[in-house]
Amino acid sequence: MTTTLYKGSVGTEGIAHNFPSLIITYPVTSDSGIYTCFASNKAGIQNSLPTMLTVEGGIPNISIPSTEYTVNYGKEITMNCIVVSNPLYTDVYWRKVNDVGQMKSINNGTQGITGCSVNNPSLTINFATPSDEGTYICLAGNVAGLGQSERIKLTVLAGLPVVSVNLDDLVFRAGYSAFIHCSIISTLVIEKVYWQLHINNSTIVINKDSSFMGITGSTAQNPSLLIQKASVSMSGRYRCFATNAVGTASSLPIMLKVVDTDLPINPVSVTVDTSDDDSK
After folding, report:
1. pTM
2. Cβ–Cβ < 8 Å for 122, 113
3. How far apart are the C-alpha atoms of 1 and 9, rounded to whole Å?
4. Biggest CA-to-CA distance, the chain
5. Element (H, E) at 92
6. For the segment 155-184, what is each residue's pLDDT rounded down to a tens digit?
7. Name one GO biological process term (predicted).
8. SS3 helix, strand, coil % of the chain, rounded to 5?
9. Superfamily classification of domain 61-157
10. Nearest in space to 150 (alpha carbons), one of 65, 244, 26, 246
11. CATH of 162-259 given 2.40.50.100, 3.10.20.30, 3.30.70.3340, 2.60.40.10
């Protein structure tokens, strides 16, 4: 395809009687090609030898070392972005796309982030929360246009602990030890464990400092409850609680009954055949 340029053509200077040379104000790769200068008078038209113009560079080339990142709730995470640009890039920002396709622009003025600048195009989220989860794109621009990275997926591991107990009612004999098992599953560090005992319309909190009551456990390492010498007054509904950085969750209540008797809690019925075998 041949394009003819005249004085006043968009993006050019020169091409005039007093300055016949051609100046391309902001050359881009599409300006590459073979150029020939023409001049005419009453005698006719003459042209120069053709000259080849090659415009190097273009929009920024953006690469990322990883397309997936995972971070724990409350931790810092950096998503790296590497920009190679000729001509130099003058603008950097990021876009975040959520699960429903909504897009949000992020720049170095966005609260809670660092980076995202010409000097440091990578994006650092200072305190990751579930709202930061989504897909991210790094973008950089120069006079040639705008380049963008592949999509980056960020996953934030965050959630309340899952706390469970055996839901079968427990029966123990007074004066003996009683054990209530508690299981905790959490992607984050468990910061605190405690129990609540509901009895006679009141609530008693049991924690790791309740050893004076003859109770041990109730810690992150050992969340279960061991009553070393159970008494009837300890009967009631027990609930296990666990706290991580997201918040506190609890188990369903479990009923503990302490009976004041010497009889077996679960007596076994035994039938003895006293008939005389010889009489058969």
Report:
1. 0.62
2. no
3. 17
4. 150
5. strand 91-97
6. 998 889 999 999 899 999 999 999 999 999
7. synapse organization
8. 5, 45, 50
9. Immunoglobulins (2.60.40.10)
10. 65
11. 2.60.40.10
